Amino acid sequence: MRVLALMAYDKAIEAGHLEWQARMQGLLGISYALESEYLKARQHFHNALELAVKSGNHKSLGDAYNNLGGIDFVTSNHKDALENYLEAIRNYESGGYHEKVTDIHINIGGLYLKLKNTEKALYHLKKAYQQFILLDNKIGQSMVLNHIGQAHLENEQIDSAMYFVNQSIQMSKEIQNHYTLTSAYNTKGTILFHSGHYNEALDFFDRCIEIALIIYNTDMISSAYLGMSKTYLKQQDEKKSLEYANLAFELAENINAPQILSSAHQQLAEIYQQLGNFEMSLHHFKAADEIKMKISDQSKLHQIYNLEINRLSKDKEIQRLEIERQNLLLSQRNSVIVIISLLFTAVIVSLILVFSRIRQRQKIKLNEAILIHSEERSKAALDAEIQERKRLGLELHDGVGPLLSLAKLNVTALIEKPDLNQDRKSLILENTVGTLNEVLREMKHISHNMAPIVLIEKGFESAVKDLVIKLNETEKYNVTLDVSGLNGTLDSYLEHAMYRSLLEIINNILMHANGSEINIQIVQDNAEITIMIEDNGKGFDLNQNKNSDGLGLKSTFSRIEGMNGKIYIDSVIGRGTIVTMVVPVYEKSKSWKE
Length: 594
Description:
Elements: H1 2-15, H2 18-34, H3 38-55, H4 58-74, H5 78-95, H6 98-114, H7 118-135, H8 138-154, H9 158-175, H10 178-194, H11 198-215, H12 218-234, H13 238-254, H14 258-275, H15 278-314, H16 316-319, H17 330-416, H18 422-450, H19 453-458, H20 460-473, E1 478-484, H21 492-513, E2 517-524, E3 528-535, H22 542-545, H23 551-562, E4 566-572, E5 576-584
Helix pairs in contact: 1-2, 1-17, 2-3, 2-4, 3-4, 3-15, 4-5, 4-6, 5-6, 6-7, 6-8, 7-8, 8-9, 8-10, 9-10, 10-11, 10-12, 11-12, 12-13, 12-14, 13-14, 14-15, 17-18, 17-23, 21-23
C-alpha cells in the first residue's frame, strides 16, 4: 500500500492536485500507524492537513483531523484527541458529509470509554447507532453494538453487556463483518471471564484468534492471547497462562506495539508473582513501567506537533489564497486521476479475489451449519407434535373415556331392562344427563387448553389478559401485564404460536420457579413483537440445563424459530429468570410462511 501511495503522490505533485496529495499523505500515515510507528504517521497526517488547508476541501480537512485524533488516542493524548475529533466534525458538517460525522461519534465514544467515562461514551455511541440505522449501515451498527457492550461491561452490567455483544456477533455473522466479529468475540470472552465462566471465556478467545489470523488482525490476536493468559491464571494453570502471555509478548515485539507489550510484561509479572519467582516478577514490572515512560515521552513529542496544527487552523483563511496555483491543464488532471484510479482498481480487484475465496469457504461451512440446525429444529417440532398428541390422547382416555363408558352402561341398562319402574328409570336418566354434562365440561376444558375461545374470538391481547386474570385468581402468584403497541389482529398462526409459547413458559414457572411474582411485557413496533416474561423464582444454571431433554422449552424454541424469531434466556440461581421472545411481524396480506 505504501509503494502505491508514494507513486500516486508523485503523480499528484506533477499534476499539482492538492486534494490527491492530501489523500496520499493520509494513506502513507495510515501505513505507518498500522506498524505502530506513530511519529512517522503523525508527520504524514500533518502534511495531509497542510495540503487540505491549502485546497480548502472540507472532506480532506475532516479526514486529516480524524487521523490526527486517532494518533492522539493511541498515544494517550486524550485532550488533543478530543479537540481534533471535534474539529473533524465541524469540517464534515460544513461540507455535508454527515455519514463521516457518525464515524467520529464512534471514535469519541471509544475515547470516553478509554477514560472510563461510560455516560458520555454511551451518549456518543447511541447517537452513532441511531444514525447508522437511518443509513441502513449494518457494518456501523455491529461495530457500535460491540462498543456499547464494552461500556456496560465497564459499568459491571454483565447482562446488558452480554445482550449488546450478542447482538453485535449476530449482525456481524449475517453481513460477514469479520473485523467486528473478532472484536465482539474478544469482548464476549472478557465478559465471561469477569462473570467467572472461564471455560466459555477460553472458547470465545479462541474463536477471536481463529478469525483474526485469517484477516491478520495482530492487535486482536495479542489481546485474545492476554485474555487466555489471565483466564488460565484464574484457573491456577500457571503453565498455560505463561504460554499465552509469552505468545502475546512475542507478537507485540514483532509488530512493535508498545502498549500491548507493556500489558504483556504486566501479565508476566503477575504470573511469576503467583509462581513465587519474585525476581522475574520484578523484572517484568520494571519493563512495563519503562515502556509506559517511553509512551509518555512520545506523547510529549506529539503535543509539539499539535501546536503546529493549532497554528494551521488559525492561518487557514490566509493560506487558502494559495489555491490560485492549482490552475493546471484539464488533460493533465484527467490523466493523473485515471492513473490513480487504475492503481486503486488493481488493488481492489486483488483484494476482492482473495476475500471471495475466503467468503466462499465460509459460505459452505455456514450452509452445513444451517442444514444441521434445520434438521434439529424439524426433529424438535416433530417430537413436540407427537408429545402433544400423546397428551391429548391421555386426556381423552383418562377423562372423557370413563365418563362415556358410564353413560353407555346407564343407557344399556334402560334398553336391557324395560320393566324397571318409572322412578328407577328417571334416576338412571338423570345420572346419564349428569355424566354427559361432565363429558361436555371435560371436552370444553381440553379444547380451551389447546386454543382458548377468547384467543379465537378476540385475539392474542385479550387471550393474554384473560390468562393473567385467571393466574391472579389462584392467589399463588402476583402477575402483572404491560402491553404496548399491539394494534389490530395478527396472523392466526402467529397468534396461536405466541400464545402457546407464552403458556409453556408460564407453565414452567408455575412448576419449577417457586417464586411469587411474574411480570409479562408485550411490545410491538413496525418490525417485530417482543414478549418478555420475568419471575422472581429460584432461577437455574444455563450451563447445566442447556443440554436438557425437556420438551417444553425445545418446542418453544422450535415454534419461535419456525417463524424466523429469536428466544433469549437470562437466568441466575437465586435471582430469577427472564425469557425474551422476539418475533418478526408481517403484513396481514403476507403469510409468515413466505
